[in-house]
Every structure is written in structure tokens, then in C-alpha cells.
Amino acid sequence: MKISDSVKQRTYERERAYLSPYAQLSENTKGRARQEEPCNMRTDFQRDRDRIIYSKAFLRLKNKTQVFFSPEGDHFRTRMTHTIDVSQIARSIARSLALNEDLAEAIALGHDLGHTPFGHAGERVLNSLSPFGFAHNEQSLRVVDVLEKDGKGLNLTFEVRDGILNHKKSGHPATLEGKAVSLADRIAYVNHDIEDAIRAGLLREEELPQEDVKVLGSSSRDRINTMITSIYENSVGKNEVKMGAREADALEDLRTFMFKEVYITERSQKEEERAKRMLSAMFDYFRKDKDKLPPFYLKLSDSYPLEQVIADYLSSMTDKYAVAVFNGIFIPKSWALREEDIEL
């Protein structure tokens, strides 16, 4: 056996010795859609994590909206920082329950790869425009299956793909690690969106529902710690990952409060209307003249319906790139004037 092979074998041995009987062992993965030579050192889940980190879609997350469009401050969260938040929380849950951290991390890092520019506003717009509908979890799976690596996809394992597809609250992940990521996603976005809303002056801490604050805590750190502890106490030694009813109800209350006070407000609706006009105009533009699509997407339209490919292209854009493409299509460019032609 090569030394490098023994590294992976030691990982397998540690998982067998220390992980929960309900954890997904790396050596028992259901594998990939396309067979390929295994890595000598890394397990398949570790390899999936690395493929996601080095994908183009992952790099673009740093310039995609989480909640606030093109925030001026440096400390507002983007889709990238949200993804890192989810990964950290999911790994903490997995570690506490002796689940497979590598699998949880890979799912978390890939769960939002298909998100649109302009956050959930962009998702709602594309869902209304495309005859096939649009959901970011399904698009994330399409990114890793089809769009990455110039149409070859990342060829991820079944377990990572399943976790990405089923990370929404309505999903039913096949693994406990997938369930950990689904909970981590809700914990992360509610708590960190509260921080950003307070930082933006849209909320004051004292406006938060006080009954929920009493249950979960008055700071983001306290609330996250309370919820992870609740998950541990209600899941350890069980074939389940769930939060206690009291904490789960408080989290859902905070989520409802955020929709009312931050996500769906008069101010956010105005921004969403701007995003809708931009994305709608570009969608219609490319539908009428598909030859204006970039070469990769134009070629993709030979294999998939045009409207789906346009949604692929628009959803791949960062906020700034979407604005730049819109301006390039619809905003007249000024004539270059010589200095002597300018009347003073």
C-alpha cells in the first residue's frame, strides 16, 4: 500500500471507530454518476468539498446579495459569507453528534451555488419568468451536475448532491448530515440577517420579539449556541437531527418577524421592482435573440430549452455583473467628444 493510500485508510478507520452508527461513512458512499479513478489521499466527500471550493460558481458568491443589494459597508454579509456561516454551524452540529463533518461541510459549501443575483428577489423574478419555474436549490444541483467545468459538471457523490437539493426546510435529506445543513442554513440566515438589519438601521435590538429573545438569547452568538445545544440534546444517540420544540418555535417566530420587518417591506419591494425590471428586460432580450448569449450558453441551448438556458445565465450573474450586462444592452453609450468640441 502506498503511503498516500494509508492516509485515506486511516480516515476510514477513524470514522468506523468514532462516528455515530447513524452517520454516513465515507467508504459507504453511493458514489458518483460517472465512475472515475479515486483519490489516493482524500475520501470522496473531501474531494467533493475541494471541487466545490475551486468551482467558478463558488467564487462568484462573494459578489451576490444575501439580503441587502450592493451594501455600502464592508461588514454586510454576502452569499459567500452566508455559505461560510452555514458551513461552520453545520460542522459544529455534525461534530457534536459524531456525524461526518466532511460530508456536512461539502453540502453546506455547495448549497447556494445556484442562487441568483439580488438574493431571493432575483429568485422570485426568475421563477415568474421561466416556464419551467426556478428554485435556487434545484439550480444549485444543476450547477454541479451540468454547468460547471464547461458543461461537464463536478460529478459529485450522491450524498452531497442530495444534501444540496434538499437543504430547504421543505426538503427531506437522505442523510443526517444533510439534515444538519438544512437546520444550519435557517439558523445562519435568520441570526446573521438580524445583525445586518441592525447594522443597516432597519431594526433595533429592542424591537425583536422579546419572548423569542428570552428563549434563544439576546445576541447572535447566544442564539446560535442555544440552538446548537438544543439540537444536540434532542438528537444525540438518535437517528435524527432536530431542534427542541421550544427553540424551533422561537426560530420560526424570528423568521416570520424578519419577513415582515426586513425581507418584505416597502423599501425592499422597491429594490425588488428594480431587479425585476432588469432581469425581465434581459430575459426577453435573449429570448428574442439567443445569438447574443455568451458562446457557452448558446451552445447549451442546443441541448436544453432556451428559457432554461437564459435562466442559467442570468442566475449565474453577480449583482454587479448583472447591472453591467443590463447597461451594456440597454443604456446608450456617450459619443466621445474632443476637448475643442465642448462649449464652455
Map the helices and strands.
Elements lengths: L2 H16 L25 H10 L2 H5 L18 H18 L4 H10 L8 H11 L6 H16 L6 H8 L10 H24 L10 H7 L3 H16 L9 H19 L2 H23 L6 H6 L5 H11 L2 H12 L14
The low-confidence parts are none
Here the CATH topology equals Hypothetical protein af1432
Helix content: 55-70%
* Distance, first to last CA: 81 Å
Summarize the structure.
It is built from 16 helices and no strands. The chain has 344 residues and is mainly α. The chain has a single domain, classed as Hypothetical protein af1432 (Orthogonal Bundle).
Please explain how this structure is put together.
- The protein is mainly α and 344 residues long.
- It has one domain (3-267): Hypothetical protein af1432, CATH 1.10.3210.10.
- 62% of the residues lie in helices and 0% in strands.
- The protein contains 16 helices and no strands.
- The protein has helices spanning 3-18, 44-53, 56-60, 79-96, 101-110, 119-129, 136-151, 158-165, 176-199, 210-216, 220-235, 245-263, 266-288, 295-300, 306-316, 319-330.
- Helix 9 (176-199) crosses helix 12 (245-263).
- It is flat, with a radius of gyration of 22 Å.
- The mean pLDDT is 91.
